[in-house]
């Protein structure tokens, strides 16, 4: 039964979609809206299988009525009343880097309060992207020591940020 339904809808689309699009285009003057109207009319036909079984001419009349009503509804919608067409795109806003600059200052201030060995591993791991193994080789310490310094350094950094009034973000 579902395969019959799909076959009837496909036949309805193949037989009427192009003409229905031209009709919708004449109603609206907007190619994209005309495509939306055709899609909506066919979707409604899919939801009402009794329309598909009425025969080609009855289905065609039903599709055109749906298209007309949908076009009228779109014209009456608040979106149509308040939407403004423009030939050019609005000017792009420039990014405001104030927040990121302030965050960088807060983090730099908090980093300056850390022990040098903690600050060094945090900066090299998080800002330079060095791995634990790379840090261990460069600093000539075991990897466990690097991990420990990162752990305690991040803990101290979090406390320093909290003392400066910075709270955790979700």
TrEMBL record:
Keywords: DNA-binding, Sigma factor, Transcription, Transcription regulation. The keyword Endoplasmic reticulum does not apply. Residues 15-79, 110-158 form the RNA polymerase sigma-70 region domain. One of its GO terms (molecular function) is sigma factor activity. It holds the Pfam family Sigma70_r4. InterPro entries: RNA_pol_sigma-70-like, RNA_pol_sigma-70_dom, RNA_pol_sigma70_ECF_CS, RNA_pol_sigma70_r2, RNA_pol_sigma70_r4, RNA_pol_sigma_r2, RNA_pol_sigma_r3/r4-like, WH-like_DNA-bd_sf. The keyword Transcription applies. GO terms for biological process: DNA-templated transcription initiation. Belongs to the sigma-70 factor family. ECF subfamily. This is RNA polymerase sigma factor.
């Amino acid at each position: 039964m579902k395969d019959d339904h799909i076959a009837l809808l496909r036949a309805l689309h193949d037989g009427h979609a192009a003409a229905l699009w031209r009709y919708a285009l004449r109603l609206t003057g907007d190619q994209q809206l005309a495509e939306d109207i055709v899609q909506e009319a066919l979707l409604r036909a899919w939801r009402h299988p009794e329309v598909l079984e009425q025969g080609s001419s009855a289905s065609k009349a039903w599709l055109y009525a749906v298209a007309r009503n949908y076009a009228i509804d779109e014209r009456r919608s608040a979106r149509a009343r308040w939407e403004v067409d423009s030939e050019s795109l609005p000017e792009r806003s420039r990014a405001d880097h104030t927040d990121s600059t302030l965050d960088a200052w807060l983090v730099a201030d908090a980093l300056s309060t850390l022990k040098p060995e903690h600050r060094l591993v945090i900066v090299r791991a998080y800002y330079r992207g060095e791995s634990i193994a790379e840090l261990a080789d460069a600093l000539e310490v075991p990897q466990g020591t690097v991990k420990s310094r990162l752990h305690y350094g991040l803990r101290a950094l979090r406390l320093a940020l909290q003392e400066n009034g910075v709270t955790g973000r979700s």
